[in-house]
Amino acid sequence: MGAEQLDGRLRPAYHVPSPAPHVPVKENAMDVRLAILCTMVACLACAVLSTPAPAGEPAGLPEAVEVPRVLPDGCVDTSSIEGILKGVLKEGMSDQEKAIALYQWFRRLVFHHRNMGTDRRDVLRVVNSYGYNLCGSQTACMLVLLKAAGLKARMVAGDAGEGYGGHTFYEVFYGDKWHCFDTMTSFAVLNREKPPMVAGLEEMKADPTLVSKAVEEKRTVPGFLPCQHEPEITYDNREELAKLGWKADFRWATFTFGKGKAADVLGFWLKAPEKPTFGGEDYGGANRPGLLDIRLKPGERWVSLWDNLGKWVESSSYPALGPFHTCGRADSADDVNFRYYEPYAKKDVGPVKTCYRYYGNGFLEWKPADAAALLTGSSARDLTAAADGAALSGSGELAIPVRAPGPVVGIELDLDLKQKGAAAKTVVLLVLGKDSKEVWSKAGDAAGVEKVVIPYQPSGSPWCEYSLAIRTAAGADGSAQFAVKRLKTVYQLNIYALPGLQPGKNTVRVSAKTAKLAGSKLVVEYQWSDGEGWKDEHRYAKEFQSFPASFDVEVTGAKMPRMKSLELRVEPAGK
Length: 575
What we know:
This protein is an alpha+beta fold. It has 13 helices and 30 strands.
């Protein structure tokens, strides 16, 4: 079985679907009076509708876009398990080919790292938001995918004894026997049958040369143990690692064993078959659908970056530098996947001289045009529209629910505030489920744009949904008026799960749950660089008012392009 059969162009893309539900808050925070809200929206809408539309522009208020999705041909739709299987598995594959295809694809997207949250076994979170976890969690995710593909699989724990400790991986059953795979160390070897099959633990125990001579006899599944070669971070780096915030338990994350012993992953695999412990087909893996389902409002843009903004989901006792593949140059030894990593090389990421794999960020940025637009994406209590229709005034509360396509790691709010009187006050609360927390306030006279920065709020579990409550009090003789000029929500993503382009002609499919738009248009914009040394910069934008649709983009050069961003934004149709 050659490398081409084991690889293929399997690159993921993401998805974006339905309206964000209202996030409940404490009773005294959001007593939404629907009748007042409906009246306000109706009045504001009438005011807008009563103004004749300029010539050449369609009448009507801008609409939101439900479930916008961008998917170049050859990409994998990572919005669902079904999309992943459809993109990775091809018609006519044998069970072994299916098992290897899923193994190679998952290795491409997920590296080993200890910065794990409570959702580290949720397949769609791991694939789309993080791109890293460790052996048990990787096994749990793979069991979900394999079961969905119709393959029988089980968890296995191997203990190689002193100096190594335990490790978790999985076996897949086909051809009347079990076959051993490990995505974290990138281990899978073929036996000597004709045609060859991936060896199982029983075979490796009976004949250890299946492991010890696998490289010599060219029986390794491509992309074999790349992180074993010359690890850049070792046990001896522990003082340097401590300065970066590493406090404990970095044995597997650094591929070091015992007290300073150099990495010997092959040594583990020679001993692991001796005393395995077998588990069932379920190891706590989860599949919560709808992670990427959002509603893109008028005046809102969704930007996915093939880089980061320095914001990530933090976990106690692990790196303060941000998640990155600690083995650095080992990725260049992965002959299956390196072509996807090469354009994103960074120098000197912590102790790693060259790093190809690290976390990414994206953001939602909403700039509501006026009070009417603000109310279409929010709920209000005891607020009225100002005379010019641009702001809201009074003593009341506005609740803005937000659903991000990944765990939220930062929030920025630009609040245009006009406030008079010593007793006047505006408060901003961050609402997570039933809990609310004051994050900003302004008392007394105020005029102008206030920039509210809400940093990452650690909690028991990473969260993708929240609500901002803007609470105003005019006081007895004062006044309070505000407009939201901008709300930006930064979230974490996995850059290798984004719908990137490839060399040559790319046909990009654009779809949405919304079939047609009249007052709005969806703009899709790619930015990338290609050519020799990725020196040629490109930007391409296309706009749509009906779905599904498609467009073609040409990428030059033989290597994968260096993708920079994908932006989806909803603008007025006549803009």
